[in-house]
Structure formats: C-alpha cells, structure tokens
C-alpha cells in the first residue's frame, strides 16, 4: 500500500508544470556536464604535454570518453597518434640541434688548443662558443616552426617510422594506457557484436561518404568569417596557382570524388525523413533534395570547404597531423547513415582549436553568428509549436 501511495505522490510531483519549472536549473547542469566533448578535449590537451603522468591521465580520459560514446575510440586513437607525432618529430630535431651544438663546441675547442694564443683570447672564445650553444638551445622552437611545414608528407612519414623503430619500447610504455583501452574495446566489439549498444538495426555501418562532404560545408559556414572571406579565397587561389599543375589535378580529383560520393553514397536514413521536428529533415528536403541536380551543384562548395580547412590547418600543423585528422573524421562520419549535427561537434572543435584566428573582428562576427543561431533556435522551439495528426501532444522544432 505504501508503494502505491509513493507511486501516486511521485506522479503528482512529476507533473508537466513542476518539471517545466525546474528546466532552468536542469539546463545549467546539463550545459556543464557535456561529458563527451569535455572528455575528448581533456584527453587531447593532456596528451599534448608529452609527460608520462599526463599521457596516462589522457589514456584514462580516453577510456571514459569511449564509455560515454563508443565511436570516441576513433578520437582516442587520433589523440594517441598526435602524441606519437609530436614526440617523434620534435625530439629527433632537438637531438640533432644539440649534437650540432656539441660538435661546434668541440671543433672550437680543438682549434683553440692548436693555436698558440693567449689565455685571455681562449677565455673569450670559450665564452663566445658557450653563448652560441646557449642561443642554439634557446631556439629549437623557432627552428622547428621554420622546418615544420616546409617538409613534405613523405618526409614526415619517413622520420616518424624511423623514430618509432628507435623509440619503440619507450613509446610502448608511454602509450600503454591507450593500447589497453583499444584492446578492451576490441573485446567489447567481439562480445557485443557491434559498436552500438542500443538499436543495432537502426545504426548499421553504411558507406555514407557524402556525410564527410556535409561536414566540410557545415564547418566552413560555422567559421564563415575565416573560410568565406575574400582574403581566404584569394590566398587559396594563389596557393593553387603557385603549385600548378599539381594543385589543379588535386582539385579535379576532389571534384570527381565528390560527385562519386553524392551519386552513389548519398544515403537517406528512415529516421531522417520520418521526423520533421529536426533541422536536418528540412535541410535534406529543402536544400539537398530540392532538385535532382542540387546535390551535384553543391559539390564545388564541398570541395572548396575542405581545401580551405586543409589550408587553414596546414598553416599551424604538420601535414601528417592534417591527414590523421581527416582520416579520423572520415572514420567517425562515413559509417554513420544518419545526418546528425551532434556527430560533427568533436571534429569541429578540433578545427576551431587549430584555426588560430587572431583578429577580434572574426571572433566578434562568429559570436554574433552563434548568438543569432541560438536565438533563432529558442524562438522556433518556444513560439512555433505544432501538432501531429497521428499522435497527440505538442511537437516542437529542435536540432
């Protein structure tokens, strides 16, 4: 009897009016506890410091991110790859600079011992050589920046593989937390039979290559002050013109791949066309599928968006990092048959993090853009409700 009374009182407490009254508090709590993005970001930042303790913490954060969302295993592996890239490409160059400095000091010492000079001049020469060594040790970052982006992709891959061989045991110990999480994830896949825990039939792996195109355009539009500016278009064109005809061939291949992707691998998930409460339904119906030719006409925009993203990331990151980021993004988005903006959040944050936007005008414009989007979303959600004929209750628009 007490259980029945408790159940009735619980139903009275959980009325619509009471639940709506606490929405403000719950919204604040939920906005803080965005665990998926927070864990992936913390995992990435922890691995950047290249300290053994922080790398282990990064592995634990990666494990938590995988528990929250299984596809985060890709981003955990991307973080591990980034850590390996930083260690293998930075340390060898630092060692080379130290060895060059020591060689220069030894040569100067031999020359001073052979020459019949005064002790005062020897002392001054030692001071000069020591100051030279100090200057060389104090400028590895500048040297790294200057050589960071001048080397080609194949050169970086060769350096990484050579360093991996010489540092294999050290890297194996340092990144063992990532390895253990990956092995545990493989065991989970074998036990569960799929990456998905819930409705496996609705989330089957599909070759949705058009999804990577959608993400490129959405990301470029979300950072429109950078990617859609006149200066970015001019810089991109100058870069293509400087590297012709290779750059023109790359654009041609990208356009062909884009047309091939949207023609053969532009999937329509049943959930997409069955629920008109979400924005992707209208983007698909009013834009992508408005006419049979529309998906082909959007291909140049997709290609430009990705080349602009590559150009922006390539200014501050190594080519191998940009390639790893693209492969990780493709590994997350291509198997997803449903168009969902929440799938885009983590790779988009990586793009924003490494875009290095320095002018306040761009940040102000992006802030106003995001503010307008949020205000529009809340206005539509609150003041444009609608009803379904086949289901009672009020329906609302949301992402």
Automatic annotation (TrEMBL):
<dbReference type="Pfam" id="PF04922">
    <property type="entry name" value="DIE2_ALG10"/>
</dbReference>
<comment type="function">
    <text>Dol-P-Glc:Glc(2)Man(9)GlcNAc(2)-PP-Dol alpha-1,2-glucosyltransferase that operates in the biosynthetic pathway of dolichol-linked oligosaccharides, the glycan precursors employed in protein asparagine (N)-glycosylation. The assembly of dolichol-linked oligosaccharides begins on the cytosolic side of the endoplasmic reticulum membrane and finishes in its lumen. The sequential addition of sugars to dolichol pyrophosphate produces dolichol-linked oligosaccharides containing fourteen sugars, including two GlcNAcs, nine mannoses and three glucoses.</text>
</comment>
<feature type="transmembrane region" description="Helical">
    <location>
        <begin position="171"/>
        <end position="189"/>
    </location>
</feature>
<protein>
    <recommendedName>
        <fullName>Dol-P-Glc:Glc(2)Man(9)GlcNAc(2)-PP-Dol alpha-1,2-glucosyltransferase</fullName>
        <ecNumber>2.4.1.256</ecNumber>
    </recommendedName>
</protein>
<feature type="transmembrane region" description="Helical">
    <location>
        <begin position="363"/>
        <end position="383"/>
    </location>
</feature>
<feature type="transmembrane region" description="Helical">
    <location>
        <begin position="293"/>
        <end position="313"/>
    </location>
</feature>
<dbReference type="InterPro" id="IPR016900">
    <property type="entry name" value="Alg10"/>
</dbReference>
<feature type="transmembrane region" description="Helical">
    <location>
        <begin position="209"/>
        <end position="228"/>
    </location>
</feature>
<comment type="similarity">
    <text>Belongs to the ALG10 glucosyltransferase family.</text>
</comment>
<comment type="pathway">
    <text>Protein modification; protein glycosylation.</text>
</comment>
<keyword id="KW-0812">Transmembrane</keyword>
<dbReference type="GO" id="GO:0106073">
    <property type="term" value="F:dolichyl pyrophosphate Glc2Man9GlcNAc2 alpha-1,2-glucosyltransferase activity"/>
</dbReference>
<keyword id="KW-0256">Endoplasmic reticulum</keyword>
<dbReference type="GO" id="GO:0005789">
    <property type="term" value="C:endoplasmic reticulum membrane"/>
</dbReference>
<feature type="transmembrane region" description="Helical">
    <location>
        <begin position="25"/>
        <end position="47"/>
    </location>
</feature>
<feature type="transmembrane region" description="Helical">
    <location>
        <begin position="248"/>
        <end position="273"/>
    </location>
</feature>
<feature type="region of interest" description="Disordered">
    <location>
        <begin position="101"/>
        <end position="123"/>
    </location>
</feature>
<keyword id="KW-1133">Transmembrane helix</keyword>
<keyword id="KW-0808">Transferase</keyword>
<feature type="transmembrane region" description="Helical">
    <location>
        <begin position="320"/>
        <end position="343"/>
    </location>
</feature>
<keyword id="KW-0472">Membrane</keyword>
<keyword id="KW-0328">Glycosyltransferase</keyword>
<dbReference type="GO" id="GO:0006488">
    <property type="term" value="P:dolichol-linked oligosaccharide biosynthetic process"/>
</dbReference>
């Amino acid at each position: 009897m007490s259980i029945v009374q408790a159940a009735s009182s619980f139903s009275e407490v959980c009325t619509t009016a009471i639940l709506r009254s606490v929405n403000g508090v719950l919204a604040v709590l939920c906005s803080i506890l965005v665990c998926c993005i927070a864990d992936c970001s913390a995992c990435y930042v922890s691995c950047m410091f290249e300290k053994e303790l922080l790398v282990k913490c990064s592995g634990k954060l990666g494990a938590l991110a995988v528990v929250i969302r299984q596809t985060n295993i890709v981003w955990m592996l991307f973080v591990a790859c980034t850590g390996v890239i930083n260690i293998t490409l930075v340390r060898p160059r630092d060692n080379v600079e130290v060895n060059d400095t020591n060689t220069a000091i030894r040569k100067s010492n031999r020359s001073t011992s052979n020459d019949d000079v005064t002790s005062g001049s020897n002392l001054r020469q030692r001071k000069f050589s020591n100051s030279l060594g100090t200057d060389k040790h104090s400028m590895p970052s500048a040297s790294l920046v200057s050589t960071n982006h001048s080397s080609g992709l194949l050169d970086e891959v060769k350096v990484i593989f050579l360093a991996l061989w010489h540092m294999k045991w050290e890297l194996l110990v340092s990144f063992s937390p990532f390895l253990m999480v990956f092995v545990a994830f493989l065991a989970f896949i074998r036990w569960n039979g799929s990456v998905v825990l819930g409705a496996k039939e609705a989330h089957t792996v599909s070759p949705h290559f058009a999804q990577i195109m959608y993400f490129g355009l959405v990301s470029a539009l979300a950072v429109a002050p950078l990617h859609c500016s006149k200066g970015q278009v001019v810089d991109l064109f100058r870069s293509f013109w400087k590297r012709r005809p290779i750059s023109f061939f790359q654009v041609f291949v990208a356009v062909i791949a884009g047309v091939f992707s949207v023609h053969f691998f532009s999937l329509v998930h049943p959930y997409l066309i069955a629920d008109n409460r979400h924005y992707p339904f209208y983007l698909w119906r009013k834009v992508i599928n408005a006419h049979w030719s529309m998906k082909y006409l959007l291909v140049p925009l997709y290609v430009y968006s990705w080349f602009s993203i590559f150009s922006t990331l390539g200014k501050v990151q190594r080519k191998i990092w940009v390639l790893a980021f693209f492969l990780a993004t493709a590994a997350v988005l291509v198997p997803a048959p449903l168009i969902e903006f929440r799938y885009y959040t983590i790779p988009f944050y990586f793009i924003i993090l490494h875009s290095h936007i320095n002018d306040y005008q761009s940040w102000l414009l992006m802030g106003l853009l995001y503010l307008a989007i949020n205000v529009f979303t809340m206005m539509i959600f609150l003041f444009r409700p609608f009803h379904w004929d086949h289901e009672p209750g009020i329906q609302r628009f949301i992402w």
